[in-house]
């Protein structure tokens, strides 16, 4: 009997010693079913870990969708049952989070109150005598895509990549509008810059964390291969998301300039990703009177404000279509255009240096923002 008890204890001991399952971080809002982001610990070989995982998956109903190469030490996939349990008990893993779905939000503007003249006229007045309007600079729009044939782009728009399994076209309009605000002739400032579509959002305006991180990863790869000054503009965001924040921060550390939307919930932008990323340029929205837009987020995370009410820009439907809409989504690419023009005229610098100069040359004219929020409106210098 004693022998039996000892043997039983020996068999149970390894089970008791098995590593505890890592909890899955469930972020606010909806998520893609059975889709997860896996962050590996520093020092862990991603290739070896994924190779072992794929061997374990075999013919089971799970798969790795992305193995991120540049900005995030991990991967994303559809992971079910014993496969997910295997990952949760792996000592290689730092954290696991659900694949959150964000929605692009904007308000339909009033064409009769369009701020096009204020938007382009006031801004381009600073360009008198300047040699370039963003020439030699690449602006990547992580959005719903771009109607690259729109006349506003004059052949400077191109399709970069699509993530999420969507059609490689802008079936929504938001991405074309933001691209026009950054670099569209008649709408934006950087009228000599290249504008590149990185589609990470569906035609319904839904964007998953895994696809957004893949898009950021792509921008870093393209910038490394081109050697050109690179700006990424992200008119999207949502609840705090460690994976997105980590990817954006990593890309900035590699020399990519980011403009990101503060958000449209009239709340503290510190509660929004990637708006809360300290090294990014976080943009709030004002109206044509330089007053905080009623919807715009605020707080110490904001770096500058820009026009975001009744902004007229390119749209889908035809190569000359336009639309007037409002949101921090509209303010954000205006600053991307400003940065492109400055880089084109003065040369590139580090993201930190350019952000500092952006703020030191901004105008202290914004009213209506809560205390603790900057009153600086971006402008070309």
Task: List the defining traits of the structure above.
9 helices, 2 domains, disordered N terminus, protease, alpha/beta, seven-stranded parallel beta sheet, 30% helix, Rossmann fold, Alpha-Beta Plaits, single chain, hydrolase
| Major beta-sheet overview | 7 strands, parallel
Could you name the ranges where pLDDT drops below 50 across 5 or more consecutive residues?
1-17, 115-121, 126-131
Strand content: 15-25%
Structural class: alpha/beta
- Sequence of strands across the biggest β-sheet: 8-9-7-11-13-15-16
Separate helix tally:
9
Kindly report the average pLDDT value: 92
Using the CA coordinates, give the radius of gyration.
Answer: 23 Å
**How does CATH name the architecture of the largest domain?**
3-Layer(aba) Sandwich
Distance between the termini: 87 Å
Helical content stands at 25-40%
Query: Any idea of the CATH class of the largest domain?
Result: Alpha Beta
- What's the domain count? 2
Give the SSE string.
Answer: HEEHEEHEEHEEHEEHEEHEEEEEEHHEE
Question: What would the CATH topology of the largest domain be?
Answer: Rossmann fold
CATH homologous superfamily identity of the largest domain: Peptidase S8/S53 domain
- Can you count the beta strands? 20
- Shape summary: globular
GO molecular function, one term: serine-type endopeptidase activity
Domain Inhibitor I9: 35-104
Protein name: Cuticle-degrading protease
GO biological process, one term: proteolysis
Task: Describe it.
Pfam families: Inhibitor_I9, Peptidase_S8. The active site is at 143 (charge relay system), 174 (charge relay system), 329 (charge relay system). One of its GO terms (biological process) is proteolysis. The chain is of the alpha/beta class. It folds into 2 domains: 2-101, 2-Layer Sandwich (Alpha-Beta Plaits); 104-377, Rossmann fold (3-Layer(aba) Sandwich). 30% of the residues lie in helices and 24% in strands. It is built from 9 helices and 20 strands. The strands form 5 sheets. It has a 7-stranded parallel beta sheet, with helices on both faces. α5 packs parallel to α8 and α6 (209-226) packs parallel to α7 (242-253).
């Amino acid at each position: 009997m004693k022998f039996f008890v000892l043997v039983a204890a020996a068999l149970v001991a390894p089970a008791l010693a098995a590593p505890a399952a890592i909890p899955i971080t469930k972020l606010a809002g909806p998520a893609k079913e059975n889709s997860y982001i896996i962050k590996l610990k520093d020092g862990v070989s991603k290739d070896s870990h994924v190779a072992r995982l794929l061997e374990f998956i075999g013919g089971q109903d799970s798969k790795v969708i992305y193995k991120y190469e540049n900005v995030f030490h991990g991967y994303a996939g559809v992971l079910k049952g014993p496969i997910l349990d295997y990952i949760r008990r792996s000592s290689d893993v730092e954290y696991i989070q659900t694949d959150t779905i964000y929605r692009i939000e904007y308000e339909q503007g009033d064409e009769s109150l369009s701020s096009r003249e204020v938007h382009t006229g006031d801004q381009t007045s600073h360009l008198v005598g300047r040699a370039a309007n963003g020439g030699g600079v690449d602006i990547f729009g992580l959005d719903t895509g771009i109607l690259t044939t729109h006349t506003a782009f004059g052949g400077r728009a191109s399709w970069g990549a699509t993530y999420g399994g969507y059609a490689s076209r802008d079936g929504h309009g938001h991405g074309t509008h933001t691209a026009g605000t950054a670099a569209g002739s008649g709408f934006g400032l950087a009228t000599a810059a290249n504008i590149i579509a990185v589609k990470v959002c569906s035609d319904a305006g839904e964007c998953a964390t895994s696809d957004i991180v893949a898009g950021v990863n792509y921008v870093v790869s393209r910038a490394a291969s081109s050697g050109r000054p690179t700006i990424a503009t992200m008119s999207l965001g949502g609840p705090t998301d460690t994976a997105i924040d980590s990817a954006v921060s990593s890309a900035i550390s590699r020399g990519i300039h980011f403009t990101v939307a503060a958000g449209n919930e009239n709340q503290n932008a510190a509660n929004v990703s990637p708006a809360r990323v300290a090294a990014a340029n976080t943009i709030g929205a004002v109206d044509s009177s330089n007053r905080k837009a009623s919807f715009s987020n605020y707080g110490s995370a904001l770096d500058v404000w820009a026009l975001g009410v009744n902004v007229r820009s390119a749209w889908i439907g035809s190569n000359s279509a336009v639309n007037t809409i409002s949101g921090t989504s509209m303010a954000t690419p205006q600053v991307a255009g400003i940065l492109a023009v400055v880089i084109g005229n003065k040369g590139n610098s580090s993201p930190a240096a350019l952000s500092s100069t952006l703020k030191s040359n901004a105008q202290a004219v914004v009213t209506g923002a809560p205390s603790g929020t900057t009153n600086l409106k971006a402008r070309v210098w």
